[in-house]
Amino acid sequence: MTAFNVVRFKVKSGLDKAFLDAHKKSVRNWPGLRHANIIKSGEGRYCIIGEWEDEQSLIDGRPAMIATLNTFRDTLEDLGNGLGLTDPASGPVVLSLK
Question: For the segment 48-74, what is each residue's pLDDT rounded down to a tens digit?
Answer without folding.
Answer: 999 999 999 999 999 999 999 999 999
